[in-house]
Every structure is written in C-alpha cells, then in structure tokens.
Amino acid sequence: MNDYLLDLFRDTRIVSKVKSRLPYLFRLAELESSRADKIGMEVGSVREKVITPLLIYKFGEKNVEYDLPITEPEIDVKLFNQPISIKTISGKEPSGVKLIWTVDA
Question: What residues contact residue 32 under an 8 Å CB cut-off, 6+ apart?
Fold first, then answer.
C-alpha cells in the first residue's frame, strides 16, 4: 500500500495539479463549512470529497472504494481494498495533507 501512495507523490503531473488546484478547492471547502468566520468540523468531510476523486483519477475507479458508511471508524476510502483514513490540516498556514492507512486489530 505504501508504494501506491508514494507513487502518487512521485508523479510530477499529479503533484503539479495538486499544487495549483488543491489550495483553491480547500478554500472553497472552508467557505462552505464556515459560519461567522469559524470553520466547522464538517470541513474534513468536504475536503475528503476533494481528495477522493484525486485517488480515483490516479488509480482508477475500480481500485478506489469510496461508497463506505460514514459511521465506519477511521476508514474514508479503500485503495486496492486497503483502508485509508484521510486527514487534513486547517489554519492560516496549513503545512500539508496527511493520509494514513489503518488496520483494526
């Protein structure tokens, strides 16, 4: 699994698109999830909906399972049948995106 995710960050075409489009899309997610200039917790779910199509674009729809119950703990999508939890960082100067894969004991 680790190699697939690393490949995502090694693909210069994908990296270029992420650098140019992701900040704008994340800003839209913040605006959609804000009230009274405060970003709500739902921003994570909206950003997840931005990142999931990136995974589908890179790895193909047949390799990304995204129609999972929202109640599923720590699993946002499955990539090649492996669970992935998507976490993003908020703030004035966000420093990155964190993707982790989890395993229940």
Answer: 43, 46
pTM of this structure: 0.77
Give me the CATH topology for the region 2-101: ECO RV Endonuclease; Chain A (3.40.600)
Please state the three-class secondary structure of the chain as a single string: CHHHHHHHHHCHHHHHHHHHHHHHHHHHHHHHCEECCEECCCHHHHHHHHHHHHHHHHHCHHHEECCCCCCCCCCCEEECCEEEEEEECCCCCCCCEEEEECCCC
| Domain boundaries along the sequence of the chain | 2-101
Quick: pLDDT tens for 1-51: 567 788 888 999 999 988 999 889 998 999 999 999 888 888 988 999 999
Residue 30 and residue 40 in contact, taking contact as beta carbons nearer than 8 Å: no
List of residues 6+ apart from 43 with CB closer than 8 A: 29, 30, 32, 33, 34, 88, 90
Locate 2 and state its tokens: 């680790």
